[in-house]
Amino acid sequence: MHVRLVQSKQNARLKELRRALSQPPRPGEALAGIEGPNLIEEALRARLGIETVFVSQDAERLLDGLALPQETEVLLVPRELLTSALTTEAPQPIAALVRQPDWIWRDLLEGFEGNADALIVVLAGLQDPGNVGTIVRSAEAFGATGIVSLPGTVSAWNPKAVRASAGSVFRVPLISASTDDCIQQLHESGVKLWTTAARDAKPAPSVNLTKPIAILIGNEGNGVSPELAAKADGALTIPCPGPVESLNAAVATSVLLYEAAQQRAAKGGTQ
User: Fold this and answer.
1) DSSP 223
2) In which residue ranges of the chain is pLDDT below 70?
């Protein structure tokens, strides 16, 4: 490790960390910022490139046990200087700049090692980073092959989204795409696009979700726009016996992914 002391807030790397955390990049665009030893450990396990680690001068112990690559730059920073760059209310005094995974459409369409039918989540205009992070975590939990982020969706590398994903954002194939490119890629690949709706839609358990599919999730307040919904092949709904009109976006996505996972497990003869 290359360790050096930084005492100026004008340091180029520190400014880069501050920018990455305050203005998170879109998937695949630039270095992303992460905070805390647990997420750094998750990034290392996911074999992400760790460009620079920032640690408070009085907390060098947090480096113990981190198997940082030899080429990783480590900057020792006064606690108050590092804290000023971080976003959490009670930050742990360690952070890093990491290189995002270089995912492509093929990763989403073919799944891990090309042995899974596509199960893709398309995010259209989600604004709550906590929802986005939870969806990424559920996507990994229930075997989704990837996530597409359409324009207007908050970055999955937003610090709150990264924390909500518990590190899944490091492993789930995730790309940004325009609406037209996304629709074209799905249709050309034979992936059926299902939008989500509270009414006038097919109950999810009655639909065959074992085929290559993509599930379209809309904005928390307005749902999927009529213009975008019109481009889908059909609409799904989640039967709710209680007097609730709709579910939180992350909850609805998780339920639908669970339903798809159950159907696929049954089809494969597994439990």
Assistant:
1) B
2) 1, 112-115, 269-271
Query: Domain range spanning residue 199?
Result: 105-268
pLDDT at 271 (0 to 100): 42
Distance CA 213, CA 220 (A): 22
User: In the chain, what are the helix, strand and coil shares in percent, each to the nearest 5?
Assistant: 35, 20, 40
Q: CATH number of the domain at 256, please.
A: 3.40.1280.10
221 and 128 in a common domain = yes
Pairing label, strands 94-99, 174-176: unpaired
What residue has token string 């205009």? Answer: 125
pTM for the model stands at 0.92
Q: Which residues pair with 2 in a beta bridge?
A: 73
**Cα torsion 118, 121, 124, 125: sign:** negative
Write the pLDDT tens digit of every residue in 156-204. Answer: 999 999 999 999 999 999 999 999 999 999 999 999 999 998 788 999 9
Q: Is residue 70 a contact partner of residue 92, using CB atoms and an 8 Å limit? A: no
Same domain, 115 and 57: no
Asked whether residue 129 falls in the same domain as residue 76, the answer is no
Alpha helices in the chain (DSSP H): 12-22, 37-45, 79-83, 105-110, 129-141, 159-165, 179-188, 226-229, 249-268
Token pair, residue 222, equals 């307005």
Residue 92 sits in the same domain as residue 121: no
- Tell me which residue has tokens 């059926």: 192
249 and 122 within one domain: yes
Q: 253 and 175, same structural domain?
A: yes
SS3 category, 147? strand
144, 95: one domain? no
- The total number of structural domains in the chain stands at 2
